[in-house]
Description:
- By secondary structure, the chain is α/β, with parallel strands linked by helices.
- The chain contains 12 helices and 22 strands.
- Helix 1 (15-26) runs parallel beside helix 4.
- It is globular, with a radius of gyration of 24 Å.
- It binds flavin-adenine dinucleotide.
- Flavin-adenine dinucleotide is lined by residues 11-17, 34-37, 41-43, 47-48, 51, 115-117, 140-142, 159, 180, 268, 272, 304-306, 311-314, 316.
Amino acid sequence: MAEYDYDLFVIGAGSGGVRASRVSSAYGARVAVAEEYRVGGTCVIRGCVPKKLLVYGAHFAEDLKDAKRFGWQVPIDCAFDWATLRDNVLADVDRLNGLYTQGLENAGAEIILERATVTGPHEVTLASGKKITSKYILVATGAHPHIPEFPGNEHGITSNEAFHLESLPRRIMIAGGGYIANEFAGIFNEFGSHVIVVNRTDVILRGYDHSVRDRLLQISLTKGIDFRFHAEFEKIEKLENGCLKVFLTGQEPVEVDVVLFATGRVPNSTGLGLEEAGVELDAKGAIKVDAQNRTNVDSIYAVGDVTNRIQLTPIAIREGQAFADTIFGGKPKTVDYGNVPSAVFSHPPIAAVGMTEGEARNKLGSVKVYTSDFRAMKNVLANRNERALYKMVCDGMTGRVVGIHMIGPDAPEILQAAAVAVKAGLTKEAFDDTVALHPSMAEELVLLK
Length: 449
Ligand code: FAD
């Protein structure tokens, strides 16, 4: 008789949990994974994937307008039907949910569609009351949207609900200045909603280079997005006609149809039995782990957003893989958090890797910065007065490229490839030595003067 029911019990079938379960199973471990909502987790069900599909859908607004200049006879007022896009996106989410479920089953992991909590170093309890023992427990429960406290906040929604809206809001207020706020602002603005972004400070996209942030703000303003800075919510009243009356500090009340909170994400660590099991959390409720993803309790590990290291899908996946390789594969691995590329799928998108100019100046002292501020060929013919901006930040002593920051069409697609060069520690000279691929936007990266 085995000492425990399983070798590994994973709580949460999201990006990190699915990878850890699949790979551990493939190494021969007896694995069970509990999921309280839908297999696939935030990214697949209500994050990256449906978001990106909405971004694609939204961008047609500009492409259809520009098409005329390229000779296409497109009706002046192309109608957009939210329900069609929403239902097609949700159907694709169902497809992916099926694929993820199948992937786990094929690998031999047992899926338990129930909430699970930790009730001991080797024990979990399911919502049904069943107790299960396991040699190792991996907490991969992700994070949830933070909603600011104020009267009437129950009238707002979060990104979770945004994918299911009954109809397209005529007026939407989006709270927050991070990537989720700016992405939804772009999406709804392209669909024709009047978008108001409310932020406590006057800084959007903290952590990104100031030049690309400023450029997005300027372009977003030109596109008609209304930003209210240094504003906080006082209250929201629901009117008889169903509209929401929003009271902000220092502003006249505003009437909108939907308020969407994109004000950060909080680790899903409460009510999980972690404190009772003696697992340490940090001040923000994130599970504290070492480089091997181990908590202070030897048999309990954690990966992904619940550890609040870098809240991105590829990071959760890497952490899940490293966990499985280390514990069941006999190949100890740690995740390298240096030079992680990231993007904001705004209109136009932002993408970045490495240090911002400010960070490099603080850390390195001597820095050389190269920029290209240009109008993409396609935008020139389309008469679209929207400029792209690329910035390369180099170590002034060695010429090593320490950061690339871009805003412009397809920036994330271009940056993923450029990130390889930054990660590899290449110099500006290596970029200069590379022949341009002409005509492209990416060639700007090897032509910087
Ligand atoms: P999750 O994927 O959140 O999975 C956790 C799972 O655990 C969930 O399915 C949850 O239901 C389940 N769970 C929680 N508690 C329990 C319990 N007690 N019992 C059983 N199950 C439980 N990242 C990117 O890299 N690129 C993007 O473009 C991007 N866009 C995003 C857009 C939005 C709107 C959002 C919200 C997020 C986005 N992210 C993006 C972030 C990305 O989704 C997360 O970083 C990633 O999903 C984290 O993976 P995870 O495994 O830690 O958690």
